[in-house]
Design brief:
With 736 residues, the chain is of the alpha+beta class. Helix content is 21%, strand content 27%.
Length: 736
């Protein structure tokens, strides 16, 4: 037999230095020729142990240490058939362990998988990348895949190998920049990271898995092996109905929630509720109030509580703050069984520069741009994704699709869309680079958003996408085939700003600002709008909605009830942030619970009763939701009575003659004998009066309804002569 070593010195040096990019070419079983005879060479890299043996079919072969650095080998002559085997390791302290050889299994990704990834069409990359529990050749373990094209070496480290990056180097899959390794015997719950040696510098990087399905609770940052495919869903009825529902013509009333501060447990060190506890408390609460959907501030993993989830490091991981992935699945499942949809906020506009995250992932600006004029976000001190890079687009698109697929999420509210669309967003002259045509539009982001919306609506019928877009970018919620971005809905930021500004005026001055109430109808049907009173309006010194209102305490509540009454009768879908339904006095604080004790007091209980009735009437009356995005669903009766600060209008359903008369009095002065025109004769029942005593009002009204008089008014053949309560919204509907 030849005395020549079967492994070259250079391979050993690279294993020892941690720079070997193809450990499978050295380690594991290999068929070789020695003296013209076939042999099976089994090699193991185990530095710092006493001895290694190969155990197969109850036969033990002692392996020879062929290099002192820790490379062991045993040769079986005259065979090419690789048997099942394990490695028996005797440690320096005499302890003995047995492991399956991670290099006995060749890389699992197919060339076709890699081809799809390279061209950006691997739509379920999350089923390949990350850490997946698999059984390969009868052995159960975890398959790790990560993209790090500028790495000289990537290793899997974790509690299973004492975080030693020399023990489990991954195989490089060539020009794709993908690395992978199947490690047998690992189980769910294993902690791990990637140790990356960059080609750019000698420092070792310790990175969480970008595709991880779970993470440790902050401040710890390791990824956690979790299986998200084993949950048994029980929401078949909901999912079937969702796929046939048209979200544009059905009610959409959203309760926006930050899970960490909706409610806490003060008796237990003010801890968060778990996903299971939230399912027990939040879902029945929202259902009873009549909401159709919950919208959750980002539940993707994030290191800093104060970012509210918008600075994410785990785009595929449900935050560990409230439990494990299956706990969040159970929460969504429970919501669906209760008839509630679940929307999540998703933040593809930027990511933080925490050292364990995406920033400088392989020592280079892999996910962002190196040039700060493109890659640095001055407003949020974070990194901007490189939307033109194929692998980055795949990462983001897969993140969006993942939540709809694996978690049955019903919609995505895409955060900070304006910052994605404009290259000069938040920048001064000279701080940004024009696009290839000299414009300020981020063409890569535009393309990404269009592709996102096409994929979501095609792959998951009935789901919705919502843009938080604060500019006048045209066609945000118009189909991509007409030149739009393709979102289902867009937040109506203009309406929100106008309403909050108007309501903060002392009522005596409101007659000079009537245009702020009516201006929104000039553009109300240019997009599919959601009227959103969100978390952003009750923080950072802006004060809560109730505290924004002028006047004494009674007038403040009356003003807020009026705002809600106007909002729910105005064209557009609805959204209200948690706590606003009963009237928080204190600004939202992500570190504490809502002030639930306020609900012991009648004004707050009354406001919550009104929210309940608004939601239920909104869902019950097709005129309030069926035609939200066309003039066919709205008609002014009178928008010009600024002296009295009164407006009146009709909301209409598709069914001929089915309409609701809406009248709003924006002053604390009652209006007696106030006449408005109506299209038909008959009895008009008072559906809603925000001044009702049950809501905390003065209970001034019209005795439950009015008969239309055959007196023309406002261009209509009939009219109603009514009493308008102070600071109130009235809804009336013709009976019969």
């Amino acid at each position: 037999m030849s005395n020549e070593p079967t492994v070259q010195r250079d391979d050993v040096d690279r294993l020892r230095a941690g720079t070997h990019w193809d450990p499978h070419s050295v380690l594991g079983p290999h068929v070789i020729l020695l003296n013209d005879r076939p042999h099976l060479a089994f090699r193991a890299w185990q530095p710092g142990v006493k001895e290694v043996a190969l155990l197969s079919n109850s036969v033990l072969w002692r392996m020879t240490r062929i290099y002192e650095e820790g490379l062991y080998e045993t040769l079986l002559p005259d065979t090419t058939s690789i048997p099942a085997y394990r490695l028996r390791i005797t440690h320096l302290d005499g302890a003995v362990t047995e492991i399956s050889d991670p290099y006995a299994i060749s890389p699992l990704l197919t060339d076709f998988d890699l081809h799809l990834f390279a061209e950006g069409t691997l739509l379920k990359a999350y089923e390949h990348f990350g850490a997946h529990i698999r059984t390969v050749a009868g052995t159960c373990g975890v398959h790790f895949v990560v993209w790090a094209p500028n790495a000289a070496r990537v290793s899997v480290i974790g509690d299973f190998n004492d975080w030693n990056g020399l023990l489990h180097p991954m195989a490089n899959r060539g020009a794709t920049g993908v690395w992978e390794l199947f490690i047998p015997d690992l189980e769910e719950g294993t902690l791990y990271k990637y140790e990356i040696r960059s080609r750019e510098h000698s420092a070792l990087l310790l990175k969480a898995d970008p595709y991880a399905f779970a993470s440790e609770l902050r401040p710890r940052t390791a990824s956690v092996v979790r299986d998200v495919s084993t949950y048994r869903w029980r929401d078949e009825i909901w999912m079937t109905m969702r796929s046939t529902r048209d979200p544009l013509t059905t009610p959409l009333s959203i309760y926006e929630v930050h899970l960490g501060s909706w409610m806490r447990v003060p008796e237990e060190n003010n801890r968060w509720l778990t996903y299971h506890e939230l399912a027990e408390k939040l879902i029945p609460y929202a259902k009873e109030l009549g909401y159709t959907h919950l919208e959750l501030l980002p539940i993707t993993e994030h290191p800093f509580d104060g970012s509210w989830g918008y600075q994410s490091t785990g785009y595929f991981a449900a935050t560990s703050r409230y439990g494990e992935p299956q706990g969040f699945m159970a929460f969504v499942d429970r919501a669906h069984q209760a008839g509630l949809g679940v929307i999540i906020d998703w933040a593809p506009a930027h990511f933080p520069d925490d050292p364990h995250g995406l920033a400088l992932f392989d020592g280079t600006h892999l996910y962002d741009h190196a040039d700060p004029r493109l890659g640095y976000h001055p407003d949020w001190h974070s990194r901007i994704f490189n939307y033109d890079r194929v692998e980055v687009r795949t990462f983001l698109l897969n993140s969006a699709l993942f939540w709809l697929d694996k978690y049955h999420i019903d919609g995505l509210r895409v955060d900070a869309v304006a910052s994605m669309l404009y290259l000069d967003y938040g920048r001064k002259d000279g701080e940004w680079i024009p696009n290839e045509f000299g414009g300020k539009e981020n063409l890569g982001a535009v393309s990404l958003l269009k592709e996102l919306n096409v994929l979501v609506h095609r792959e998951f019928p009935g789901t919705i996408t919502i843009a938080e877009e604060s500019t006048s970018w045209p066609g945000v919620s118009r189909p991509t085939y007409t030149g739009g971005l393709g979102f289902t809905f867009k937040w109506n930021m203009g309406w929100m700003h106008d309403m909050l500004a108007f309501f903060q005026y002392d009522p005596v001055y409101r007659r000079f600002h009537q245009n702020q109430i009516t201006f929104g109808l000039l553009y109300a049907f240019s997009e599919n709008f959601i009227l959103a009173l969100s978390h952003d309006e009750v923080v950072y010194g802006k004060r809560t909605l109730l505290d924004k209102m002028p006047g004494d305490v009674w007038q403040r509540f009356a003003n807020l009830r009026l705002l809600y009454g106007y909002m729910y009768s105005h064209p557009g879908k609805k959204m209200l942030f948690m706590g606003s339904e009963f009237g928080q006095w204190q600004e939202w604080n992500h570190d504490t619970s809502l002030d639930w004790h306020l609900c012991e007091h009648e004004p707050h209980r009354g406001l919550r009763r009104l929210t309940h009735d608004l939601n239920h009437l909104y869902r019950q009356e097709s005129a309030l939701h069926e035609i939200d995005f066309d003039w066919d669903g709205f008609q002014w009766i009178d928008f010009s009575d600024s002296n009295n600060s009164v407006i009146a209008y009709l909301r209409k359903a598709r069914k001929m003659g089915e309409a609701i008369v809406c009248v709003c009095n924006f002053t604390p002065v009652p209006r007696y004998g106030y006449r408005i025109g109506v299209p038909e004769a008959g009895w008009y029942r008072e559906l809603l009066n925000t001044d009702g005593i049950a809501y905390g009002g003065s209970n001034l009204g019209n005795g439950g309804g009015l008969h239309a008089e055959q007196t023309p008014s406002h261009g209509f053949p009939y009219s109603l002569t009514m009493t308008l309560p102070p600071l109130s919204a009235l809804w009336l509907k013709r009976q019969g």
